[in-house]
Amino acid sequence: MGAHTRNNILYCLFWLKATFALALSLTGLFYLSWRVYDLHTKASNPSGSDSPNILQPVTIVDPGTGKVAESCMYTDTTFARLEPQFTGKMMPGFHLDWSYETPTVMKKKLNDFTPAVFNTFMDLIPGTFSHGFNEDLLNWFGSECGRTGSMLELTMQVGATLDTVTQDMYDALATSITKINTGYGVPVYLRFCHEMNGDWTMYGYQPTLFKAGFRKMAEAIRARTNMTAMVWGPNVGITYPFSGGGSVLLPRKGTPDFIAMDTNKDGEITNLDDPYSPYYPGDDVVDWVGVSLYNYPLDNCYNCRVLPTYFADYLTGEGAALEGVTTVTPAYTEVHNFYQKYCAGAPNKPMMLPESGSPFITERVARANAQSVSESELKMQWWEQLVSAENLAKFPKFKLAVQFEEAKMMSPTGVPELFNWKVTNTTQVLSAFNALLDRSASTIVSAGKLKFGCDGSVKQVKP
Ligand SMILES: *[C@@H]1O[C@H](CO)[C@@H](O)[C@H](O)[C@H]1NC(C)=O
Ligand SMILES: *[C@@H]1O[C@H](CO)[C@@H](O)[C@H](O)[C@H]1NC(C)=O
Question: What sign results for the dihedral spanned by CA atoms 154, 160, 161, 167?
Fold first, then answer.
């Protein structure tokens, strides 16, 4: 499919998140403050969960000595912060539309399978269409995760260039996140300024500022807690550089950002430049890597089957699924092999798909052809790749995938169409997804089987 269409999809997805955040902030604040109160009154007596983690306050600093408790020191040399201590398995997670569902509701829909991670979006500095960072709201997200014994993925955007974030803002955010860690025993994956290698965020295409900002965020977190992991989350770079309709332009020639992004030094920023490394803030401040990766439909493809190697090909920058999207040469693969660079190679970081899914497009049903599949098939074929024992053996550092549970009108081809990523909104797709969870028992891990430590450990305590 054309790069233009793909960019439109990425761009729409960004606004979809931002618009949702606005809606939630406007309708939700009063309600949420009530919910937060209500929650605190119930917090001491949660019911119906098999997790050992529920709403157990954590003491990081020993009140007697005022020093960090020894048990809260991150000393593991094998596993990163919040890297589950298993291999060959992964944790399914969910990004929720929190305006109508919570982790507790989701757990019920999944027949008591408890996703280990739930995601939400927030803006440290509000952008045009998004709400600002709000401690009560953040606290509510954290406590809702605590009710099911799950972890929180916090995708924290900034609706401005990163030089406008002050040290006080980093400190305030780190303090709030630490309260979630200690108040509810809920670990947090902080995906700070994700998709910084795209043109649809205010902080995009600015590697110098991004790397400095990410480092400040990491330092503010590290000074307070080991139960929060820093997640570096670029967009998948197969069609990089992205352009058209975004918030920012490519840097001007000769600037430090341009020089950093022109990795092959040919005087242009092209598909043969590394879409990731200019933005990598450093092994010492990155705990996890996470790449935004979805199954995206081709323009001329009407809900067609998911190409069987899609996940693997997009992670490694080679293979049949990239045909028709880009020209793959050894030079191309060398800079697009994300897994090799960050997970198999020296950094050896655990990897997540921090948001993922396969959209079904209702408007394209009428044009179905021999390649077309049903909604359940389209969504399960994607998830099959994420839970497959073969892929987990091939990519042992891949340990978490977060389902993007939303639906929205988008117009990538100029005509409005309903892009529906949800797997739990209709009985039919939900039963297919629950069946997939059932038959994948040997490769997936739920929150109920995990135990979290204040040192940032995530241990599997049940088979
Ligand atoms: C986190 O772990 C490091 C390394 O062991 C330790 O020095 C630090 O005190 C811990 N920080 C907190 C807040 O627990
Ligand atoms: C389906 O999604 C709509 C919002 O689009 C929501 O109001 C409804 O509760 C959802 N139903 C289920 C079963 O999730």
Answer: negative
Cis? peptide before 412, omega within 30° of 0: no
**Residue of 355, 375, 405, 417 marked active site:** 355
Token pair of 9 as six digits: 């999809």
Q: What is the CATH number of the domain that holds 197?
A: 3.20.20.80
| Residue 14, domain member (yes or no) | no
CB of 100 closer than 6 angstroms to any ligand 2 atom: yes
Q: Tell me which amino acid residue 436 is.
A: L
**Interatomic CA distance for residues 274 and 337, integer angstroms:** 9
Q: Please report whether residue 47 resides in a domain.
A: no
* Tokens (6 digits) for 196: 């910084």
Tens of pLDDT along the chain (463 residues) come to: 344 455 556 655 655 665 555 455 544 444 444 444 344 334 433 444 455 567 788 988 888 898 988 899 999 999 999 999 999 999 999 999 999 999 999 999 999 999 999 999 999 999 876 677 899 999 999 999 999 999 999 999 999 999 999 999 999 999 999 999 999 999 999 999 999 999 999 999 999 999 999 999 999 999 999 999 999 999 999 999 997 668 899 999 999 999 999 999 999 999 999 999 999 999 999 999 999 999 987 777 899 999 999 999 999 999 999 998 999 999 999 999 999 999 998 999 999 999 999 999 998 998 888 899 999 999 999 999 999 999 999 999 999 999 999 999 988 888 899 999 999 999 999 999 999 999 999 999 999 999 999 999 999 998 8
Q: Is 115 within the bounds of a domain?
A: yes
| Mutate which of 100, 362, 404, 419 for ligand 2 pocket (most atoms within 8 A of beta carbon) | 100
**Token pair in block for residue 210:** 């991004």
First to last CA, the chain: 43
122 has which bridge partners?
156
Alpha carbons 169 and 157: distance in angstroms, whole number:
13
d(CA 325, CA 336): 14
Distance from residue 453's CA to the centre of ligand 1 (Å): 12
Catalytic, 195? Answer: yes
Count of structural domains within the chain: 1
Domain extent at residue 298: 58-460
Evaluate whether residue 6 is within a structural domain: no
323 as an active site residue: the answer is no
Interacting residues of 328 by C-beta distance below 8 A, sequence separation 6+: 317, 318, 319, 322
Mutate to test the pocket of ligand 1, among 68, 70, 188, 228 (most ligand atoms within 8 A of CB): 68
Q: For CA atoms 204, 222, 187, 399, give the dihedral sign.
A: positive
Give the residue from 438, 349, 426, 450 showing the smallest Cα distance to 395: 349
